[in-house]
Design brief:
Layout (H helix, E strand, L loop, with lengths): L6 H10 L12 E2 L2 H10 L7 E5 L5 H9 L2 E5 L6 H7 L6 E4 L8 H9 L4 E6 L5 H10 L4 E9 H7 L10 H9 E9 L4 E2 L6 E8 L10 H13 L5 H6 L8 H10 L13 H11 L1
């Protein structure tokens, strides 16, 4: 089977099936073998692994995954790509393609069926408009995960691994780092895709924590505190919390909690680490 990471082979298969890119699905297919090899290497796929691939497209990365993994399940929302995938993956007997929306399937059930409920590896070239819901959906559903290695918009990758005090640091950084260690493994220019996206991309590896790095009384409340703290970035954390009516925290309570932590009442959300947010949410409950 022709390697689809070579642009000419991608063009041939697209022409054969008269395939037209769908803007609504955010389709950008990888056409660089070095980047594909880098992603699979970063994901550390072994012959023991079950891999869930989200958005296989025409099967470019799926071919690489099938070469390495014990079993691959590829979830593709665009039904027009299903006949293409049947052809491009016909040489492999360790892959199943599901024509589904990944946000609507029970991934824990897949892990049970194909991997006896043991942690799985997720690999994807994600549509940029839906990156965060997919990643947070995987974390919040408490799917058994070992790692998530994904291509995302460069700016989003930077936010995921950002440290306190930087301009990229925010609610997404804290949410991701609560569940996983985030590490950008490659920056990828637009010319590695067809069609070319307007923005730069990056491959980020999220290695899931076996145990949470912080202990909180109420996980949902922690994330509500985090969101309220970043809702109005230029405001102090006290104002952010006090202005969020749904949170039910007064400015006085916020000031008292910060004082107990040895922090000034005019501190902003971007200064607090995950550990400090955990401490703050426990004090406010």
């Amino acid at each position: 089977m022709a390697t689809l990471g070579i642009p000419q082979n991608t063009i041939e298969i697209l022409q054969k099936y008269d395939f037209h890119f769908q803007k609504k699905y955010g389709q950008n297919f990888l056409i660089d073998t070095h980047v594909l090899e880098k992603i699979v290497r970063a994901a550390e796929i072994t012959a023991e692994d079950f891999v869930l691939e989200i958005g296989p497209g025409i099967g470019t990365m799926t071919q690489y995954l099938c070469e390495k993994a014990r079993r691959v399940v590829a979830v593709e929302v665009d039904r027009k790509l299903i006949p293409v995938l049947e052809e491009t993956l016909s040489g492999y007997d360790n892959v199943a393609v599901l024509n589904e929306d990944v946000l609507k399937i029970d991934i824990a059930e897949l892990a049970q069926e194909y991997n006896q409920g043991k942690p799985i590896k997720v690999v994807a070239n994600l549509p940029y408009y839906i990156t965060t819901p997919i990643i947070m959906g995987l974390f919040e559903a408490h799917v058994p995960l070992e790692s998530i290695t994904v291509m995302v918009q460069k700016e989003v990758a930077e936010r995921m691994q950002a440290a306190p005090g930087t301009k990229e640091y925010g609610a997404l950084s804290l949410a991701v780092q609560y569940y996983a260690k985030a590490e950008v493994v490659a920056n990828v220019p637009p010319n590695c895709f067809m069609p070319r996206p307007k923005v730069g991309s990056a491959v980020i590896r999220l290695t899931c924590h076996k145990d949470r790095p912080v202990t909180v009384s109420d996980e949902a409340f922690l994330f509500r505190v985090v969101r309220a703290s970043f809702n109005q970035r230029r405001k102090t954390l006290v104002n952010g919390l006090g202005n969020d009516a749904a949170l039910g925290v007064t400015k006085e309570q916020a000031v008292q909690a910060l004082e107990k932590m040895g922090l000034q009442p005019d501190v902003r959300g971007e200064r607090l680490s995950l550990q400090e947010f955990a401490q703050l949410s426990n004090l406010l409950l």
